[in-house]
Amino acid sequence: MKTSRRELIKRLDRIFSMYIRLKYSTGGMVRCYTCGRWYPIEQMTVGHFIKRQFSGVRYDERNVKPQCRRCNYFLQGNDVEFERRLKQEYGDHIIDLLREKKGNSLNTAELTTLIAEYSNKLKGIGCSPKAYSNNNESKDAKER
């Protein structure tokens, strides 16, 4: 049976979110990209500078960073600080580059490739995508 595009996106969201949080974690703690505070990995979300409805940048690691709930939800992404930090990290050109890329759409083959890529990256840092609990899936669906 063929997997639907929606199911692939849901699976990739879960795997990618887990990867981003683990990539930036130290001893189970993660620093919020925008406010700089440290939180346990379970309390972190992933924030998108260019919002996640734009599939061209939804899984671009330059566009997606760990954020605390306060910055991601209550401050609606803390976009001014997010942009400042992106420019500091990648240079002023990054904002235009991401904006140009945001209109691209991912097909099912590309989604499947990204699932395999980020599953392998998780394995490379000693974590299985299957280890991510179903409780986190509902949280990931709410992330920006």
Describe the protein in words.
The protein is an alpha+beta fold. The protein has a domain at 17-106: Orthogonal Bundle (DNA Binding (I), subunit A). 53% of the residues lie in helices and 12% in strands. It has seven helices and five strands; from the N terminus they run αββββαβααααα. The chain has helices at 5-23, 55-58, 69-74, 79-90, 93-101, 108-124, 134-142; strands at 25-26, 29-31, 38-40, 44-48, 64-68. The strands form two sheets. Strands 1-2-3 form a three-stranded antiparallel beta sheet. A two-stranded antiparallel ribbon has the order 4-5. A hairpin with a 6-residue loop joins strand 2 (29-31) and strand 3. The radius of gyration is 15 Å and the shape is globular. The N and C termini lie far apart (30 Å). Mean pLDDT is 90; it is low at 133-144.
Q: Briefly note the structural class of the backbone.
A: alpha+beta
Please report the first level of CATH classification, the CATH class of the domain at 17-106.
Mainly Alpha
β-sheet strand percentage: 5-15%
Strand order of the largest sheet: 1-2-3
* H/E element sequence: HEEEEHEHHHHH
Shape: globular
User: How many beta strands in the DSSP annotation?
Assistant: 5
Average the pLDDT over all residues and give the rounded result: 90
Number of H- or I-type helical stretches: 7
CATH architecture of the domain at 17-106: Orthogonal Bundle
CATH third-tier fold name of the domain at 17-106:
DNA Binding (I), subunit A
Q: Kindly provide the radius of gyration, computed on alpha-carbon positions and rounded to a whole number of angstroms.
A: 15 Å
> Level of helix content?
40-55%
Q: Give unreliable regions as ranges.
A: 133-144
Largest sheet entry: 3 strands, antiparallel
Ends apart, CA distance between termini: 30 Å
